[in-house]
Write a structure and sequence with these properties.
It is elongated, with a radius of gyration of 26 Å. It is about 75% helix and about 0% strand. By secondary structure, the protein is mostly helical.
Length: about 300
């Protein structure tokens, strides 16, 4: 299916572009901070060292900035080179910079990743359930294998959100100049930014598979999937509010913002809630697709309706 592959590649390119724009915006912010530090240094130098304002605000700032200025002329010195790099990134480590990137202003657009998966899955599954394709497949394989074939083709979309995270991680390493394996291999990073994102990608795929049943085309499948996605966001948000009444604070129990986690969030609770949601939706999907006769009747009905539109 060439079109779905083209769309998939285009969306991957868009994700890479978005990541780079987000990174460039962040770097501009760091440059502005350095300019502000230079301005503050120049203002502080105008004050007397006996001035209370100098001691309270300027003393440490002046000392750090003067070391930075001296080290600019000693780039071959390893200690100086390291100090300059750390000073430019405000002495932040890999984890802090990564969280900054994941919580930037541009990340308000992060729900688009969920929509990308739903759009791509809706388009591909519609090809296999609303056209004559299903008849060609069923001549060569059983119904169960046909369903498995469709599902396997949809599984490639689970890489979209983890790929975005890995791109941002690589961009983070360009600032710190070192690969922080402690953060990269930490259970929190792996659980929240890898496993959890894969689980939610499966949730979106399963939602789309459910909504494809009885939908006559891609647009209807997408509309139903998006509507169900919004309903689940509302339900999960309501559950979070109810839990707060019992002093149980779960900030990320919803499926809307999957990239911006607080250092205080509990990965076990977050993963548990996403697994429960996946199990519920997967069970509903199983109940639907096990009814072979109804699924095939809906496919034939969609085929007839589509044929009538072009008569």
């Amino acid at each position: 299916m060439k079109r779905s592959k083209i769309f998939f590649i285009l969306f991957i390119i868009a994700i890479i572009t978005f990541s780079i724009i987000n990174f460039i915006t962040y770097k501009k912010g760091l440059n502005n901070t350095l300019k502000n530090a230079t301005y503050a240094y120049n203002e502080c130098k105008k004050l007397s060292k006996n001035d209370s304002n100098y001691k309270n605000f300027c003393e440490e700032l002046v000392m750090q900035h003067e070391i930075y200025l001296k080290c600019l002329n000693k780039q071959n010195d390893k200690n100086c080179s390291k100090f300059v790099k750390n000073y430019k990134i405000q002495n932040k480590n890999t984890e802090e910079i990564f969280y900054d990137l994941m919580s930037s202003d541009l990340m308000l657009l992060c729900p688009m990743f969920s929509l990308i998966i739903i759009v791509l899955a809706s388009y591909e599954i519609s090809h296999y359930t609303n056209n004559l394709v299903y008849k060609n497949y069923l001549l060569r394989m059983s119904y169960n294998n046909y369903i498995k074939t469709i599902y396997k083709k949809l599984l490639k979309y689970i890489i979209i959100m983890p790929l975005f995270v890995l791109i941002n991680l690589l961009l983070t390493f360009t600032l710190t100049s070192t690969i922080d394996f402690k953060f990269l291999l930490s259970y929190k990073f792996i659980m929240l930014y890898m496993i959890n994102l894969i689980i939610y990608s499966l949730i979106y795929i399963n939602l789309t598979f459910i909504c494809a049943n009885g939908s006559k085309n891609f647009i209807v499948t997408f509309a139903k999937s998006f509507g169900l996605y919004v309903i689940i966001i509302y339900i999960m948000g309501s559950i979070s509010i109810i839990l707060k009444l019992f002093n149980i604070n779960i900030n990320q129990i919803n499926i809307f913002d999957l990239f911006n986690y607080s250092p205080t969030d509990n990965p076990i609770i977050i993963i548990s809630s996403s697994i429960v949601l996946l199990m519920i939706i997967t069970f509903i999907l199983y109940l639907i697709i096990r009814n072979k006769e109804k699924i095939l009747i809906n496919m034939e009905k969609n085929e007839v309706e589509n044929d009538n539109q072009y008569k």
